[in-house]
Task: structure prediction
Amino acid sequence: MRVRLDDPAKTAAWLTELAPVHVRTLDAYQPGKPIEELERELGISGAIKVASNENPLGPSPRAVAAIQAAVGSINLYPDAASFALRRALAARLGVGEPEVAIGAGSNDLLYQLVLALVGPEHEVVSPAFGFLSYRLAAQVAGRRFVATAATPDGADLDALCAAFGPTTRLVVIGTPNNPTGSVFTRQQAARVLDALPEHALLVIDEAYAEYAAAWPEVDHVDGLVFLREALAAGDPRVVLLRTFSKIYGLAAMRVGYAVAHAGVLDLLGRVVRTFHVGTLGQVAALAALDDTDHVARSAALGRRGIERMRAELGKIPGVTAYPSLSNFVLLDVGRPSGPLYDRLLKRGVIVRPMAAWGLPNALRVSIAAEHDLDRVIATLAEVLSP
Ligand SMILES: Cc1ncc(COP(=O)(O)O)c(C=O)c1O
Result:
């Protein structure tokens, strides 16, 4: 037979039949607005984007050099096993090479976890106000996602643990959490692991771990130490996710990693797309990992940025600037934030409105380089002041 879509109603009906209901009802992830798009729309230049928690210092110069050195070999497929990067990470993290897996960003690893481990009868559990990919990764696969009670100050641990049952397969916690900036303490993480069913995994998403390390006086779990202790005690149920997109400044290269029991990672390896992490990403990540100076400068800039934003924006009447151990601050502005977001856009400052996260009165603002941060703070103060 031949199909002829000659009017919009027919096209809509045909598309409806084509996809399963869990795909048709999905809301695609809305990324932060790109600078070029805003400048094109408003005919302006010099816009600042503080919407996607990127590193305002840019990539590690060593990573840039490594990309330049490798660019002549992109006719060859990448190393599918990411051997050199895995070996370097294993040595750095104090684990075995089979305990490290590389993904196309930590997003990719979240999707792999669901694909490999969460069956139709299972669900993914995570506190509300977390990273949207936790929900999306489950829903894309047609799996149930259960969001438990939380506030911007953190998860309600009783509610989280009470949600666990025999069909719970993944429990995902972000620490520091995006978009709230809140953390789990070591004790809280231990409590979650103690309550976890036998056949469930605790996924600790530490995309901002290296920023959090700049706040040693604030009690927060170090996912790597926690995971190593669990493995040493014979408990294989902790998975750590980290990324090169944040402090390493390599968001465009799409490289993240998981650290977990080798048997768990072997299961992930069965669903991975072939050649999912390109050569340039692998060499860039390897070089960035060694650039401890870039990481230290970025972490210090992050802490200074958070301290300044909290001090200066938190004193605007009606505004709450939540604590954060990451590279962004969540602001409750006490009224719907959509119109304020639009006014900020017109002034060339791109922040992130939080309605899609269930926080309609909130904006998330990433740190900026020092010279840009003055303008970001001044513009926010002007727009948010009553
Ligand atoms: C908490 C958290 N996890 C994971 C990611 C995903 O990062 P990527 O896929 O770039 O590694 C992000 C990115 O914003 C994040 O905020």
User: Anything to note?
Assistant: The domain at 28-58+293-384 is CATH 3.90.1150.10 (Aspartate Aminotransferase, domain 1). The first strand starts at residue 48 and ends at 49. Residues 53, 105-107, 131, 174, 178, 205, 207, 243, 245, 251, 256 surround pyridoxal-5'-phosphate (CB under 6 Å). The chain has a mean pLDDT of 96.
